Fold these 3 entries.
Entry 1:
Amino acid sequence: MVTGVFGECYHGYKIGDEITLEDFTHPPEHFCLGLAHALFPVIYALSFGACFPFRDNQRSLLVTCPDGGKLEFKAEILDRDGKPQVILKDPNFKGPNPKKMVIEVVKAKGKCTFGYKVGDKWETAGLKCIPGFCGAAFHTAFPALFALNFGAKFFFMENHDSIDTVTCPDGGNIVFKVTRSPEGDTL
């Protein structure tokens, strides 16, 4: 739902407009691609159970238009009756709690410009960029990092705290596994 307008929107979105996605892979026709880019990590995370403990409703998040912050959107998950899922703000929330994340190359074919090979691993905390890491690969891994950092579980994976299908956009030569380390692990 559009919650704020702070400039002219090329798509004409206005306060109160609601955009419903059946799932995170099928945006509506004529959907703003800038908005899709900004919303994807959030919707992906919410779809797999992520919660944002700093929000009044942990099952929602405000997202700003990447084109100059012209609009603000509230992303939320609806239940089967079309009503927003609600989990009230965590009263014990004390601030950011970045999780230890591991990115590992699990498949390699062809040539990787960065020279990545099976078994290469990197650690990070929460959503921090990894110095020297391929930007295209990080961009691809970001939705998984974002989701896992906020508690998402990938129920279709053997380890629900990881996803091993994060594929490099450069010809699909490298496939990464992104894993949230067990609670209590920090860098």
Entry 2:
Amino acid sequence: MPEPNAAEAELIPGRECGDCNVCCVALTIDDPELRKPQGYRCRNTLPDKRCAIYERRPRTCSDFNCGWRQLKWVRPTLRPDTSGVLVRMQYEVSRDRGSAELGIIVTLLTNASLKAEGLAETIAAAVAAGVPVHLHVPGPPGYTAGHVRINEALIGAVQARDKAAVLEILRRARAKGRSGDHVPIVLGKGTS
């Protein structure tokens, strides 16, 4: 069961990026040093998937590690490039306590992501532990994504230990997010 804490900020031994560079494509980066909308490969990505500016990459990139690398309760099978699932951490203010608490954002990159081994179990463990879970569904490249908290929708299926129901709820939520209104991403708002 997940117990998010400061100690999990350390990387899990054996979980290396290797050839995975999903974050270089799937995420919007709006940093003065590097701007790219989600769905487009970073201009600094080489054909072999390495980063051309790795030694001098912006802090936005050097500070980022996905949840698969940091959260031991995220199943080992959910490496982003092989599963199509990108787990990210976010802190949000607790509705009950008013303090910052760890939550996760789960990005389902393709329809096949719903078949990723360990997806339902990882999300169910987080929901059961009260970790805020947000589903992030990418829009077309360069357009905004759908984003919704899914704890409330999943709690019944999680309590019933109904994996099929968890996956069906995720499938419907992903489909709804894909069909929603998406607007072009505008980078550099308010910056010079």
Entry 3:
Amino acid sequence: MRVLAFNGSPKAEKSNTSLILDPFLEGMREAGAEVELFYTKKLKVSPCQGERSCSTRTPGECIQKDDDMAMLYPKLRQAEVWVFATPVYWGGMAGPLKNLMDRMVPLLQPFAQPSEVWANRGQKQNSVVLVSNCGWWDMNIFDMLVAHMKAFSLGVGRRFAGALLRPHGPALGPMKEMGAPVGDVFEAARRAGHELVRDGKMSKETLAIVSRELLPRETYIGGKL
């Protein structure tokens, strides 16, 4: 299984997003997947120009040739699993990741409706996974982002395989450094990677541990960590 992952956080390797993404990808590697990770901060990706040549005059080919998408298109076509990792900004994803996803239009079947693309994939659909972190306490802050990723997956004819969501994420790193009992969260992220490769899906129980409450709400909001 080939996995292509993108970390959209501006903090790249040092981000709170990486705290969940890294063990998830490691679990996939341990289960036998070939994993490649890119940081959008380190990529040169120009905005989509929206002129639709990739769907009309030159189907599947973008007119922009002078950025990193030329390198990424073959990898995207070959990967069975796409992993998109991002912090939550205003209910959505980080801008550079959205910019990269906008440039994926050449991967679509020209003029096909989402339902047609889905049907043409048959039973062996490739998949999309979301990994996200946010500073808010409540899980509902992820709702718009998850809905967006589900719509994106449908549009590109891939199965949305699920999401690893970490609310009040900024507490996780400091709690780990303090020796607080948060190891189960990282282990669950790693296990989710194993499950996806082995079973083609991630269990609700595993994902619930990734998202579990880390500390009392009042402690987090009051900054008493």
